Amino acid sequence: MIRSDGLHAQLSGTRISIDFATGSLEGCLLRLQKASALPLAYETSSLPERSVQAAVFKNEKLSSILDYLLTGTGYIYEELHGVIVIRPGAESLPPVRGAYRICGTVKDHSRDLPLAGAAIFVPEYRTLGTFTDSAGTFSFYAPVNHVGLQIRHISFETLDVLAEDKDGTCPTFNMEPAPAGLDVMEIQSRPEPSSISALSKVSPDIRKMSFLPLFCGDVDLLGIIKANPGIQQGNDGSGSLIVRGGAPDQHMVLLDGATLYTSGHLLGLVSSIHAAAVKSADIYKGAFPARFGGRLSSFWDIAMKSGDTRKFHGDLSLGTMASSVMLEVPLVKDKTSLLLAGRRSYHDLYLRWSQPGLQLHFQDLNLKFQHKFSEHDYVYYTGYYSSDVFHSENLIVLNNDESRKHAVTLQTKNQVHVFKWKHIFSDRLITNLSFSTSGYNLKSAYRFESAYYGMTDVVEQGFSTGLNDFVARLSGDYVVSSRHSIGAGVSYTIHSFKPSINTSILFQSIDSAQDPNRSVVDPSLNYETDAYVEDNFEITEKLRINAGLHFNGLKFDTGNSFSIQPRVNLCYQPSGYWSVNLSYVRMSQNLHLLTNNLTSLPSDFWIASSSAIRPQSSDQVSLGISGGATESKYKWSVESYYKWSRHVTELLITDTLFMSTGNNTKLEWEQAITQGKAAAYGLEFLLQKQSGRLTGWLGYTLAWSNRTLPEVNDGLTFPYKYDRRHNVNLVLLYKLGKSIELSSVFTFQSKPRFPVLMFRSDDNSPFTMVFRSLISESIPQPATYHRLDMGISWIKENEHKVKRILNLSIFNVYNHRNPAFYYSGYNIDQTTPVLPDKKDILPFMVALSCRLCF
C-alpha cells in the first residue's frame, strides 16, 4: 500500500469498474476521476512523466487502482475533508520545517460566502498544503515568511496568490465561479460519509425537497421532517409534534439560537418557518450535543440565510392557497445586507365552500440584517413575527324544536428577536455573543349552545397563555487540530408566564345561571442559568467521540433546582459506508405545557417548575447501524432507542378548572397537576435511494410509549394518548425529464389505544362522577391516520439563471377523513349523550403555484 496513514476508509473502499489504455499518468487520473465521480486533487505540472500500461479493473477497490497507478512514482494519496489528495511522499522530497504561519480565508466572490474544502497548494514546497475548514479558513507553517499559493475548488477557477506571515493577520482570498462551458465536474449525487450524529439527526436538503407537494406554494419544512422515522404529528389540527414517544412540550425549535414556541401554522399543517429563508436545518431526536438543553425529546436547530452582500436575489411564489416573497438586498457592497421574507395564506376562502363555518389563515414575516465591521467582527439581527387565526362553527339541527351549535376559536402569535456579535480571534477560535427575546400568546375559546323548545343552554370556556423569554448567551468554539475541537458556552434566561382560564355557564332549562369565572395564575418570573462544554475528538481513523456536560440551574420564588447532564456519542466506522453509533444522554426540562385533555385542539398553558412541580428529566440510550451499497445509490439505517423519563406532567380533569368559584379566583395549579414516570422505546428503519431518476425514502417506526401516574388509573401503567404502534412514511421523487418532476408523499399511522381519562382515582366528588360518566360515553374511538399527497413540477431556467417552477399539488388524494377534533354535547334534562361529530380540516384539495427564483 502507498496510502498515507491519514486516508479514511470511506473513499478508498469504493468499488469501480474502469479500463485503462496505455498512456500518461495524468490522463489515467483524469479518466479515473470522471469514471468514479470522486473528488481527486493533484498538481498536474508536477506529476511524473510515467507511462501507465493498459489494464482492466472490474468492481475493484479504488485503493487498489490508485496503488497500481502510483507504484514507483514516489507519490502517495490521502483523504482530507472528503477529497483524495495525490501528492509526493515524504521520502521523495526533503522535509520542510516551518517557522512562519500562513493563514487565510477562501470565499465565493459572487456571493461573499466561505468555501469549505478548497485545496491549498504550495508549488515551491510539494509537501506543504492543506484544505479549508467549514468556515473557509486554513493555516499551516512554512520555512519562509511568504509563499506562492495555488487555491483550487470544484466549479471555481484556480487562483494563484501570494501569502505571507503578517503577525497573525489572515487575508481573504476570493474565488470566481468557473465560466459556463468549462469542463467542470459537479459532485452532487454521492452521499457524504456518516457523521458523528448521523442516525439521530435529520438534515433535510431543502433544495431537493422543493419539488414535493406544496401546500402553500413553498417547501414545507415541517412536512419533510414529519416524513422521517421517529417523528410524527399528533393529528391534523393538534399542532402537536411527537418525537420518540415524547410529549408536545418536549421539543424545542431554535431560530438562529432563539426559542420559537410553535413549529407550525394552520394547526400544524404548514411549517412556521419560511423555507426560502432557511440556510440549514438540523433536527436532533437523540444523541444530543452538550450545547442543547431545556427539552427532553428533540431540538430543531434552524439557521436563517444571511442576505447576499453583492447581488440582489429573490424568490417569489404566487399560489391558490398562499403567496410568499423572499428578497436578498445588498445595502453596502461586501459589508451590509438585508433579507426579507413573508407569507400570507388565503385558502380559507376555498375551505368555506367544502367546509362551511371554517376560517383558517396565517401570516409570517422573517427579517435578517448583517453587517461586517472587519474581517474579525460581524453583527446580525434576526426578526420573526407570525399570527394564526382559526374559527369553526358547526350547527346540528335535530328537529324543528332542537338544535345544537358548536364554535371554536383559536388565535396565536409568535415573535423572536436576536442580536448577535461574532468575533473571529483567529482561524482556531470563534466566539458568539447574543441577546434574544421570544414571545408566544395563545387564546382559545369554546362555545356550546343547546336550543330546544325556546330555551337555550350555553357553556363558554376560554383559555389563554402568555410566555416571554429574555436570553443572554456567550459561546465559543476552539479548533485544537484537524481531529480535535472544543466548544463551550454559558447563558442566562428570564421566563415570564401569564396563563388564565375563563368560564361562563347559563342553563335556561333549569333556571340556573353562574356568574362568569376567571381563574388566573399570578404572573411569575423564573430564572435559568445554563453552561456547557463539549469535545469532538477523532480517536482513530475509525473511532470518533462527541462527549460533554450540560449544567442547568433554575431559581424560582421559594427555592432552586440544579442538574448536571452528561452526554456521550460514539461513532465507529469499520469500513466503507458502514457505521455504528452508540449514545447516552441525560436531559432536564424546567418548563411544562399543561394540556386540556378534553380536547385535541391547542388549549395549553406554559408554566415553570416550582417547589411543588419538579423539573422533568430523562435518560436516553440509542444504538444504530447504517450502511450503503458500493455504488452509493442506496443507504439504509436501523436505530433502536430506550428513553425513561421522570416527573412528566399532566393536567387533571377537576372542578378546580371547570366549575365557577367566583370572579378573579386565583387558581392553584398544584391542585390540578399530577406527575409521574414515562417510558418510550422502539425501532426506526430508513431506506434511501439517493441517485437516479427515482429518488426518495421509506421510513418505518415500531414504537411504544407508556406512562405511570400514581394518582391516575389506580397507579397502573397505561399507553400514552399519542402511542401509535406503527408509523410508515414513503416519499418518492421521479424525474420525468430535464424539466418535469413528479412527487408523492404517503403517511400512515396506526390508531392509538383508547385514552385513559385524567381523573384522580380517588376523586369521588359529584362533579367528577357526573363528568366522568358523560365523557366516557361520548368520547370518540381512536382512528387510524393515513393520507396521500401528490405533485408535479415543471421547471425552466433561462440563460440569465432565472428559474421558473410551476407546481400542481393534490392533497388527500382519496379524501380520507382524518379527524382534527370532535364536537360533542349533552342536554341537561336528557340521559343520552350526544354522539361526537368529527371535524376534518384537510379534505381533498388541489393547489397550484408559480415560483420565480433569481
Q: Distance between the terminal alpha carbons, to the nearest Å? A: 49 Å
Structural class: mainly beta
Work out the number of β strands.
55
**How much helix is in the residues?**
under 10%
Task: Round the mean pLDDT to the nearest integer and report it.
Answer: 78
Unreliable segments of 5+ consecutive residues: 1-9, 91-97, 180-197, 509-517, 659-666, 825-833
Beta-strand fraction estimate: over 45%
Shape: globular
Query: Can you count the helices?
Result: 7
Rg, Å, rounded: 30 Å
The largest β sheet comes out as: 22 strands, antiparallel, barrel
Describe this structure as you would to a colleague.
With 854 residues, the chain is mostly beta strands. The chain contains seven helices and 55 strands. It has a 22-stranded antiparallel β-barrel. Strands 16-23-24-19-20 form a five-stranded mixed β-sheet, with no helix packed on it. A hairpin with a 2-residue loop joins strand 25 (313-319) and strand 26. The protein is globular, with a radius of gyration of 30 Å. The protein starts with 8 loop residues before the first helix and ends with a strand. The model is unreliable at 1-9, 91-97, 180-197, 509-517, 659-666 and 825-833 (pLDDT under 50).
